[in-house]
Every structure is written in structure tokens, then in C-alpha cells.
Design a protein that fits this description.
This protein has 257 residues and is an alpha/beta fold. It has helices at 14-19, 26-34, 54-63, 76-85, 125-132, 160-168, 177-185, 201-212, 219-226, and strands spanning 44-48, 66-71, 92-96, 109-115, 135-148, 190-197, 233-242. The chain has a domain at 9-146 and 173-203 and 234-242: Vaccinia Virus protein VP39 (Rossmann fold, 3-Layer(aba) Sandwich). The chain starts with 13 loop residues before the first helix and ends in a 15-residue tail after the last strand. Mean pLDDT is 92; it is low at 251-257. Keywords: Methyltransferase, Transferase. Residues 45-139 form the Methyltransferase domain. One of its GO terms (molecular function) is methyltransferase activity.
């Protein structure tokens, strides 16, 4: 991976980063977002679907921000050990929680970020209303995730070789960049300031294919990455900020989900 694309990532062991990423090297996604979403020491960051928390560690070490690393499926004790190994125990707090029902204060975070995870919970319009109450007024949302080159209404929009894997593998959660722009702004709670293909996406894909092309467990991912000569799927980055419109709050004891 060219260092000019991700110079900060070059100081981390690549094998370690790839081992602890749930897909492509997540540190490349984090660094790409921080190139367009400026962070200041002391900011409070909500890392949604953090996986093994190496995205949270990177943010804390590189930018001096405080991070709440939230994931429902990963043991927070294991994440805590990784956090301590990198000397970030005073900056990163691991939590096991459902991102759709966060046990966290309202109007608390300066930003929320999601790396290769937002599509798993963020396609539900109700999620945004609930999550944004945790951001301060004018707080920001940053996303790096998979995308398609065009909108797909159903599996019938695809060639026969992709239809079943589209349904079985949950690829219907992956959308075009313009779909995400529309989805995130329809409530009036967010204004999208940037939404674009991820610089370096081709290099990230090439590295992934070099690692997993012959791995049967990754055959579905490889198929979609190589579909339409590599032009069907890719990655995008998006930055938005909370508008002055207030999310509707539910009565105490009730859940908006």
C-alpha cells in the first residue's frame, strides 16, 4: 500500500492491523476519513461497530481524542487489553452495547464514526434519529464503508451469477454513494458536506484480493470485488454534521427502535 496515501498507517505493523480488521485493513479507512474530518485533542468520539477497537486506538494515538469504542459482538475485555498494550487506557473506553440503544448521555459527543460497519445498522432510518441525540449540536458523523457504482433495487438488477450471493450475503445493505446521501439527509437532521469514492480504494481492493483470492471462506467477497472488472463495488467516505433540527425524543422508558 503506497505510503503517500496513508502515511500514518505506515508506522503500524501491517500484519497486526490486517489480523485485527474484520475485512480490509481498517486503519486505511480511518486515516482516509481523518484527512477530510479534522479532529482536535480532547474531542469525544463515538466509534460505532468498532470491532477489535484498533480504529479507536489509532484515533486516540494519532489525534489525542477520547474514544468510546462500541461493539456488540466483540469481547470488551479483549479490546481493553489491546487498548492497554498501546498505552491508550486513559483515552479509549471499550463497551459492549447495541449501537441502536446506546447507554450514553445525550448531547455528549463531538463526532460519531463508523468504519466498514454503518451499513449493518444505519440503513434503518430510525437509527439515525436515535444516534444523533448523543451528538452535540453541530456534531459530525463520519462514515467509510462499501458502496456500489449504481443503485440496485433487487437481485433481478444483477447478472445471474451474482443474484443468489447478493441475497445470501446481505449485499442488499450495500448502496451507492448517492443513495447514502439521500438516506442521511431525508430527516433534515444532517447536512452532508462530503460524499465521494475513497481515494486509494483500488489499492485497498488489490491488497485484499492478493490476500484472499484463493480463500474459500472469502469467495463471495472476492466475487463482488471482481464483478464488472472491479467497477461494481468499492468504498466511499462521507462527512455530515448535525443541523439545528432536534431529533424527536421518546418518553422515558420507551425505545425509538
Amino acid at each position: 500500500m503506497p505510503n503517500e496515501l496513508f502515511p500514518r498507517c505506515g508506522t503500524y505493523d501491517r500484519d497486526w492491523a490486517e489480523e485485527h480488521s474484520l475485512g480490509e485493513n481498517v486503519l486505511h479507512f480511518v486515516e482516509s476519513l481523518t484527512q477530510v474530518m479534522k479532529l482536535r485533542p480532547g474531542m469525544r468520539i463515538l466509534d460505532l461497530g468498532c470491532g477489535h477497537a484498533i480504529s479507536s486506538i489509532f484515533l486516540a494515538r494519532e489525534f489525542g481524542v477520547r474514544v468510546w469504542a462500541v461493539d456488540f459482538g466483540v469481547d470488551p475485555s479483549a479490546n481493553q487489553r489491546r487498548i492497554e498494550e498501546f498505552g491508550c487506557a486513559d483515552l479509549v473506553q471499550p463497551l459492549r452495547a447495541d449501537v441502536r440503544a446506546l447507554p450514553l448521555p445525550q448531547d455528549f459527543f463531538d463526532a460519531a464514526v463508523a468504519f466498514d460497519s454503518y451499513r449493518y445498522f444505519g440503513t434503518d432510518q430510525r437509527f439515525l434519529t436515535g444516534m444523533l441525540r448523543h451528538l452535540r449540536p453541530d456534531g459530525r458523523l463520519g462514515i467509510v464503508d462499501a458502496c456500489t457504482s449504481r443503485d440496485i433495487s433487487s437481485a433481478e438488477d444483477l447478472g445471474p451469477d451474482l443474484r443468489q450471493e447478493w441475497l445470501d450475503g446481505g449485499w442488499y445493505l450495500v448502496h451507492s454513494i448517492e443513495w447514502w446521501r439521500r438516506h442521511l439527509t431525508r430527516t433534515g437532521l444532517l447536512e452532508v458536506t462530503l460524499a465521494e469514492p475513497l481515494p486509494g480504494s483500488d489499492a485497498i481492493r488489490t491488497r485484499y484480493l492478493d490476500r484472499f483470492r484463493d480463500d474459500p471462506a472469502e469467495a463471495e467477497m472476492v466475487t463482488f470485488m471482481e464483478a464488472e472488472e472491479g467497477g461494481f463495488t468499492g468504498s466511499f467516505r462521507l462527512v455530515a454534521h448535525r443541523t439545528g433540527r432536534q431529533p424527536l425524543l421518546e418518553e422515558d422508558g420507551e425505545t425509538p427502535y
